[in-house]
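Database export, one record per block. Field names are fixed; values are copied verbatim from the stored entry.
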Amino acid sequence: MTVLESNNLRFKGQRVLLVDDDASLLKLLSIRLRHMGLEIEAVESATEALAVLPVFNPHLVLTDLRMDEMNGMALYEEIQKTRPMLPVIIMTAHGTIREAVEATSLGVFGFITKPINHIELNEQIEKAFKIHSGLTSNFSETQWCKNIIGQSSVMDALLKDLYHVAQSEISVYVQGESGTGKELIAQALHQASPRKNKPFVAVNCSAIPEELLESELFGHKKGAFSGAIEHRKGLFELADGGVLFLDEIGDMSPSFQVKLLRALQEGEVRPVGESVARSVDVRVVSASHRDLKQMVEEKTFRLDLYYRLNIVTLRLPNLAQRPEDIPLLVNHFIAQSKTKVKKISTEAMDVLLGYEWPGNIRELKNVIEQACTFATTTLIPASLIENALQKKNLSMLSFSEAKKNFERDYLVQLLKLVGGNVSQAARIAKRNRTEFYRLLNRHMLKPASFKENIK
């Protein structure tokens, strides 16, 4: 039996993105890796690799170091921006100890020289896949993320990164638009971590008045202020041993940012009215729909607090970036509706898939709940979805659209009032006749059609 045959189907469909500008080596290596049971996407440049990365969603990247335009280390740095936990192994025919040390010190998973020792390569690949231990190809079967609905490649990649980050104790920042499910991500991180049997405490920083935020987070002593009728533990103490999720951290005032930074640095809090601080063991996960980096540049968010909170960033895609998840989410919301509705029509689903979803998952949920409420059969027709979206669109007009609608409605009401008399209407509107006619033409309004309103 050959070495190749003995290694046949050693792996079970894990995906490897293979990058090398040597076409013959690329072909040979692809054949060998496929015989080991791996799914391979082979490309001849780093640019191609970055293009297929979000679609192929690999478990591992195996790349040559020396390539034209963008080399392997530059490719690794680009991958780090969107997939910080994706292992990368670099191959080179010019391997030196210095290059290997530099690469691994920057976070590259492995470094292997050409000609490739396939036993060594197999061992490195096997070690790399251990990063994905605890994950399955079907996340719905995994308890720690059972509340996250999705099958898209972007969510698959996010959950893989989340699981790996969860095993550490580092602070995590979740960046995402409103309505994308940032708290669900924080809960999944907690459930995937060694702290899963300890408390998960969530607080929306923007929902608490500034004067109460310190008491809410750090607690207070009885009599510390008006209304403090008893001693109360703060959320830091309640989350001791577990995870504290600080949502909308960007809305926190600069003055309180100083107090939060001190608590995080020292690992202790001092309740309002007390002189002695209390030690707490809390892992902080924070989130915001705002761009904290931009806020730092604008001097509205402290740089030292930013680095304390943002050791790793998990970027949550908006709904428009994961359209393949919409059918799953729709079915989930229908099942939750507790109405007679069982499913949605194909035409209605087409309407949903064609919408941009500025309000993300929260907006989708509201639309489905409304459609389920008004549905008269077990099937949601397209008309109910269209009506729900139309009402939402009207409530979210752009300034120019709102201005245009107001202008038209004003002219209609004015012409009704004067029975289509342009001279009288222009005087009331304090516009000359020429300008007034121009306004009417812009909205395709004919004064003669209003004359019959006055008898």
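Remark 1: Residues 341 and 372 are 6 Å apart (CA to CA).
Remark 2: The two ends are 103 Å apart (CA to CA).
End of record.
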